[in-house]
Each structure stands twice: as structure tokens, then as C-alpha cells.
Design a protein that fits this description.
Elements (H helix, E strand, L loop, with lengths): L1 E2 L7 H8 L10 H8 L3 E5 L4 E3 L7 E7 L1 E6 L2 E7 L3 E2 L1 H5 L7 E4 L3 E7 H10 L1 H22 L9 H8 L1
Antiparallel strand pairs: 1-2, 2-9, 3-8, 4-7, 4-9, 5-6, 5-8
Helix pairs in contact: 4-5
């Protein structure tokens, strides 16, 4: 993973995208601006592992460009694309990643590290509280959708079903 030293983000375009992601539901413009200041931008090359089953979670990822594939015990079960987040529920949990995510294309991601999340806890309770509430909602959706199948990582499948 390559961390971009110079973020050349179109802030308005990114904030518009973030406002549509369920992880940032209820965020006001000033919350999104403050959050964006805490995110890093990284580039991932096609075929690179973003995170691996059994690893300790350390980051929340937001897909700006590209597509990732999720694998459970070596079997592909999900694609994530532009405008979606991943690994948000794992970061607040104490369990290891239960899936592997691999870049299916070259990707551009925004990253909120666990360290930055804890800094938000100390410095901006409004953003931290909204994030934790939204992560809890994602977990609840996952439990409702997938029960005990351990597919609690994202509500992407339900979003895809709603789009059809």
C-alpha cells in the first residue's frame, strides 16, 4: 500500500460521496469536513491484499476508485466498489478479520486508522459518537441479514438487492 504524501482530493466530490455512505449517516457538513481531515489517502495495486483473514483490524477503508473482492475461507462471496466502506465493524471489535479483501483493480482508498479513531474519541466526541452509532447499525443489519454466518462485515449485499 502506498500512502500518498500529497492528497489531491476534490474535497467537495469526496464529501458528497461520504454523505451517501451509511457509515456517515447523520453527519453534518462540518462533521464531514473534520472527518476528512483525519483520513489518509492510499493507492492499492490490483492483486494486493488489503487485509487478510486472521489479521488484527487496524483501519476502516472507504473506496474512492476501484473494486475489491472479499473471500471467506478462500471462496469469493462479495465485491465492494466505489462509494462503499469496509472493515468498519472489525475495527471496533476485538476479533481478527474473518475475511480477506483483495484489490480486483487498482484502487484509491481513504483510510481512518484505529489510532485516528481513538484520537477522535479524545478530541471530537460528536464525530466519534456518530461513527460508533453507525457502526453499530451496520452490525445490526449484518446480523439481521446473515445471522450466524459471520457475514457481518458489510451491508453491501442488501444494498445490491435494493438496487435490483
Amino acid at each position: 500500500m502506498k500512502i500518498k504524501s500529497e492528497c489531491r482530493l476534490d474535497r467537495e466530490k469526496v464529501m458528497s460521496m461520504l454523505s451517501k455512505i451509511t457509515l456517515f449517516g447523520g453527519f453534518q457538513r462540518n462533521n464531514l469536513e473534520d472527518l476528512l481531515d483525519n483520513l489518509s489517502e492510499i493507492s492499492i495495486e490490483k492483486g494486493e491484499i488489503i487485509f487478510k483473514e486472521g489479521d488484527s483490524p487496524s483501519d476502516i477503508y472507504i473506496v474512492l476508485e476501484g473494486r475489491a473482492e472479499f473471500f471467506l475461507k478462500g471462496e469469493k462471496f462479495l465485491d465492494i466498489e466505489k462509494g462503499f466502506s469496509m472493515a468498519e465493524t472489525a475495527v471496533v471489535g476485538i476479533q481478527k478479520h474473518v475475511f480477506t479483501a483483495i484489490a480486483a483493480t487498482d484502487m484509491e482508498l481513504l483510510v481512518l486508522s484505529k489510532k485516528k479513531l481513538m484520537e477522535l474519541f479524545n478530541e471530537n466526541k460528536d464525530i466519534f459518537s456518530l461513527l460508533i452509532l453507525n457502526i453499530a447499525r451496520e452490525l445490526a443489519r449484518g446480523v439481521a441479514l446473515f445471522g450466524d454466518q459471520k457475514l457481518l462485515y458489510t451491508s453491501m449485499k442488501s444494498k445490491r438487492s435494493e438496487e435490483k
